[in-house]
Amino acid sequence: MIKISLTSWQAERAVTILDDVLTQGATLDRAYAREFANFKMGPGEQARIATLVGDLLRRLSLYCHLADVPLAEAATAGWGLICVWHQFHDLPLPSHPTADRFNLKAFETRRAQAKGDPVLWDGCPEWLEALGQAQLGKQWPAERHALTLAPKRYLRVNRLKCEPQQLMDKLAREHIQTRLLAGQPDTLEVLSDGALFRTECFKQGWFEQQDAGSQQIAPFLGVEPGMRVIDACAGAGGKTLHLAALMAGKGRLLAMDVEEWKLENLRQRARRACAHNVEARLISSSKTIKRLKESADRLLLDVPCSGLGVLKRNPDAKWRDTAERLPILMDLQADILSRYSRMVKPGGELVYATCSLLPCENQEQVARFLAADSGFSLLAEQTVSPAASGFDGFYMARLRRAG
Ligand SMILES: C[S@@+](CC[C@H](N)C(=O)[O-])C[C@H]1O[C@@H](n2cnc3c(N)ncnc32)[C@H](O)[C@@H]1O
């Protein structure tokens, strides 16, 4: 994480983004998009603002403690939070009346207090600490801490368009340095700060930005060129495009979702990536699924989940009603697994995946499904731990339907 003092003007942008997330309920991505569209800024300036806002939201309760502000009032304390963030990272404070009033002695006392409290130090809300302890036990503190770290940037090389070395060379000519990730032949780690979406390589569909952990899911499904494959919770198509590349563009890949706007986004991305075997289809009723009964060699169920494995990237979820939504999400996951699995041919396979670390959304869902005489058996399961890998957190289980 590159940490540099913000100018007052940049800090004002950060205050607006924080308010958009904490008061207006915008997702962090949407809040960035709005603010960055309203003002002309270079990619470096945007990255600096995002570094500060992302880190503030990852450990909001810590920074509130340091600023002596109740968590519930964080949204109105933007400048106070910005000042403590700068002080915490040993950076000069931006010029503002709040900075002139900054009480360094009180700050140091509060920092010393927080250091003795690992839950506060990791900026973890109470509900998440209770859930993490109950679900993950001894493993939780390491995961909790890993989820406070800034996410790295990774690319997935689009093999429909280029080879990794070609992409690395071309990006280097556009002043973006990358390196291949050991053990993942299609994954590049981005080492420089440039705006990836402005590069010619991106416009020509040579890569997608995708976390390294997320890139483990499509290969787990074991697709081959010529198969009939369904990605039933495709969203905007991050994993669909990966599946298309693994299928070398051959066979049929049906991408489905309940949100048409996401599928529209997916269609555009598929065109850019030259993923010509992708068909996007809206799930408008249960009939859409029933009509596809026993039609798929492979099925990906990348189900809606709490997103607690990707808190590094989406830290705003820490400060939302995620705990209240969890039981609703778990019902939806069980329903999707039970109904959508009927689309798999006898002898075919499915992968159930989430971006959660919680067994109640992962292993326990799969165990209940298998116990309910589903006709499936478990072939393999895998967890991507942020603490062990440094990537975002994921779970995947591969199941085979009896022949
Ligand atoms: C984890 S996201 C998928 C992310 C996507 N696979 C990717 O790689 O970018 C889950 C998706 O499930 C969709 N969804 C929610 N309810 C659904 C349902 N009943 N059937 C199918 N998809 C659903 C959501 O709209 C969301 O796009």
Automatic annotation (TrEMBL):
UniProt-annotated catalytic positions: 355
A GO term for molecular function: methyltransferase activity
The SAM-dependent MTase RsmB/NOP-type domain, residue ranges: 143-403
Binding site for S-adenosyl-L-methionine: 257, 302
UniProt KW keywords: Methyltransferase, RNA-binding, S-adenosyl-L-methionine, Transferase
Keyword Transmembrane: no
Keyword Magnesium: no
CDD domains listed in its UniProt record: AdoMet_MTases (cd02440)
Record-level GO BP terms: methylation
SUPFAM superfamilies associated with the record: S-adenosyl-L-methionine-dependent methyltransferases
Superkingdom classification of source: Bacteria
Family recorded in the similarity comment: Belongs to the class I-like SAM-binding methyltransferase superfamily. RsmB/NOP family.
PANTHER family for this protein: NOP2 YEAST -RELATED NOL1/NOP2/FMU SUN DOMAIN-CONTAINING, RIBOSOMAL RNA SMALL SUBUNIT METHYLTRANSFERASE B-RELATED
Name by which UniProt lists this protein: RsmB/NOP family class I SAM-dependent RNA methyltransferase
